[in-house]
Amino acid sequence: MDKLVVKGGARLTGRVQISGSKNSALPILAATLLTPETCVIRNVPDLSDIRFMIEIMQRLGAKVTFENGVVTTSAEKIISEVPYDLVRKMRASICFLGPIIARCGQATFSEPGGCSIGDRPIDLHLKGLAELGAPSHNEGGNIYIPKANLVGKEIFLGGKSGSTVLGTDNIMMAATRAKGLTIIESAACEPEVRDLADFLNKMGAKIVGHGTRRLEIEGVDALHGVEHTVIPDRIEAGTFMVSALITQGDVFLAGAEANHLVNVIDRMKSCGAQITSDAKGIQVSAPRKLSSIDLVTETYPGFPTDMQAQLCALMTVTPGISAITEKIYPSRFMHLSELRRMGARVELEGATAILHGVEYLSGAPVMASDLRASAALVLAGLVARGTTEVNRVYHIDRGYEHIDQKLRALGADIERVR
Ligand code: EPZ
């Protein structure tokens, strides 16, 4: 298994190109199954999650190629069964459910397992699909939707933590082929959901309200093949913003979209960062002394849960006391025990991490547990005294394209060791 070896101390400066958004590309790839015609998707990041999504599409019967960031796919005929060995490895495969039901009128889908960031139920997905006319039952770990007759309906999709991103995606995709009007109340309004709606509208769907909590989808008889360019990855951009702040650096995030990061930029400015942006990207300059902050993760436009671990890393070396509360995945704190191994002073009170800034962290061998936790450990390694080895780096390769090369180009001392 690969590991990343980071020698702390370098100040990061220069320009980094932000890749296409993983969390936009994944549901858009699933949406291409809604048409037998050819689709061309550009600015797709080369990540293991993307390659795995493509493998599932091929197993379902689609012809897919992926080179130089461009995916070309045509799903003339697809099967409607997604087996356990595919679903268990990547929870995001759940976003095949809506397109398969809309295309095949039925689906057999293995129930996705849990993952290290916490419980990830799909009750809202199944509730929304049932209300649209695709009732399901669970047997032996499989979800069976034997017969779907999709008819538009008003559906409330709010859950205990507010809206659901992939749940909104699934219901929206199925509703494009339902008879009549579907209204989704308490819809997710993340930029990635908006990007999917834009893609579906290009295919001939009739969706309005994307980017708000209320979506209206008028069903259509067929969707056609299109070309589309995926939006930039706001979480990768946010992660590199932290890499500039934690190393007292000054970094330009080329291609980053500031409008997708309003809350993150606000919190970073509260830390003392100087941040400017234009159509080309975002400039982040660190203050001489960072200020501690409190934050709570929420659904968009709140502070994203996918940036929580990265902010914990930053606050371990920020003078003062910070409180970071996780309201989306209350147990998404696997990174704290690894940060403690590096000398961080942090305690967990329920779903709130209380971080006491220390003068320095010490490099150590640490274990990645999930995609964003591994990014947090690399960020901590950039500023720690000595060497940090981040093991199980396959986690980070799921969501960050060439992160070691990009950090090295900014001046970091980081190597990937087989
Ligand atoms: C998406 O996952 C992202 N993944 C996650 O990013 C992200 O952390 C998450 O949204 C929240 O922003 C992709 O887009 C591929 P949710 P998703 O349904 O859609 C509860 C990363 O690091 N819920 O919005 O699966 C759930 O328990 C990944 O890139 C239900 O209760 O998340 C959670 O508390 C990790 N019932 C909250 O909603 C349901 O049926 C938000 O989950 C569905 C969700």
Write a structural description.
This protein is an alpha/beta fold and 418 residues long. It is built from 14 helices and 24 strands. The chain has helices at residues 22-31, 48-60, 84-87, 97-104, 123-132, 165-175, 191-202, 234-246, 262-270, 308-316, 334-341, 371-383, 394-397, 403-409; strands at residues 3-7, 13-17, 38-42, 63-67, 70-74, 81-82, 107-110, 137-139, 142-145, 154-156, 181-185, 206-208, 214-218, 227-229, 250-254, 274-278, 281-285, 294-297, 321-326, 345-349, 352-356, 365-367, 387-391, 413-417. A four-stranded mixed sheet has the order 22-23-1-24, with helices on one face. It has a four-stranded mixed sheet with strand order 2-15-17-16. Strands 4-5-3-14 form a four-stranded mixed sheet, covered by helices on one side. Strand 8 and strand 9 (142-145) form a beta hairpin. Helix 1 runs parallel beside helix 7 and helix 5 runs parallel beside helix 6. It is globular. The protein starts with a strand and ends with a strand. The structure holds ligand EPZ.
Characteristics of this structure?
418 residues; alpha/beta; UDP-n-acetylglucosamine1-carboxyvinyl-transferase, Chain; four-stranded mixed sheet; 14 helices; 24 strands; globular; binds ligand EPZ
What number of structural domains do the residues give? 2
Strand content: 25-35%
Heterogens? ligand EPZ
Content-based structural category: alpha/beta
Low-confidence stretches: none
Largest sheet: 4 strands, mixed
Q: CA-to-CA gap between the ends?
A: 6 Å
This entry's quaternary arrangement is single chain
Shape: globular
Radius of gyration: 21 Å
Determine the number of helices (DSSP H or I, runs of at least 4 residues).
14
CATH superfamily of the largest domain: Enolpyruvate transferase domain
CATH topology of the largest domain: UDP-n-acetylglucosamine1-carboxyvinyl-transferase, Chain
Helix percentage: 25-40%
Mean pLDDT: 96
